[in-house]
Amino acid sequence: MQTANSQIYWESFKTFFKIGIFTLGGGYAMIPLIEEEVVDRHRWVSKEEMLDLIAIAQSCPGVFAINIAIFIGYKVRQLRGAIATALGTAMPSFLIILLIAMFFHQFSDNHVVAAIFKGIRPAVVALIAVPTFNLAKQAQLNRFTIWIPVVSALAIWALGVSPIWVIIVAGIGGYIYGRATA
User: Fold this and answer.
1) In whole angstroms, what is the distance from residue 110 CA to residue 98 CA?
2) For residues 37-59, b (16+ Cβ closer than 10 Å) or e, as one string?
3) What pLDDT digit, counting tens, does each position of 4-41 carry?
């Protein structure tokens, strides 16, 4: 029989395994599912904490999905919680990639598979767009601050500016703004 203490690890592993297996499009596409499970269903973190964790996970090196899972797991149950959520997030992708690698040569030229992937691509764009709009709402962007993400995105996309520089400049700007308004 599992103790209540060890059950949280299994529950967090299962939750992130489910998120990992049912999410196409990478970490950003996971955000709505993570919010639904972690904030709304299990209430492991608040909406405000979730926004902060997303910002931190985005700023850290590595895969976003694993980063956010680790931060949430650590918040729930420290190191063991972080391990459980990270494994839960990574395991579905690992298993799927392993299966694809084993059988890829059998369906790599299949027109049906190619058509399926062409159909999935636009849906993935939507899966990434929805959390972007939700993040903008939660960050309380308004007509005075909307220029920041727009200019940042244009600098990265059109000018090839490294996202690292955007994060550094935004952090410095936020620090200066915070000091000036305090």
Assistant:
1) 19
2) bbbeeeebbeeeebbebbeebee
3) 667 889 999 999 999 888 777 677 778 888 889 999 99
The DSSP secondary-structure symbol of 182 reads: -
Mean pLDDT of 59-70: 88
- Does the pLDDT at position 1 exceed 70? no
d(CA 70, CA 12): 11
93 contacts 20 by C-beta, under 8 angstroms: yes
Q: Give the three-class secondary structure for 37.
A: helix
What 161-165 contacts at long range (C-beta under 8 Å, 24+ apart), as own/partner pairs, is: none
pTM for the predicted model, two decimal places: 0.60
Residues 7, 133: Cα–Cα separation, whole Å: 34
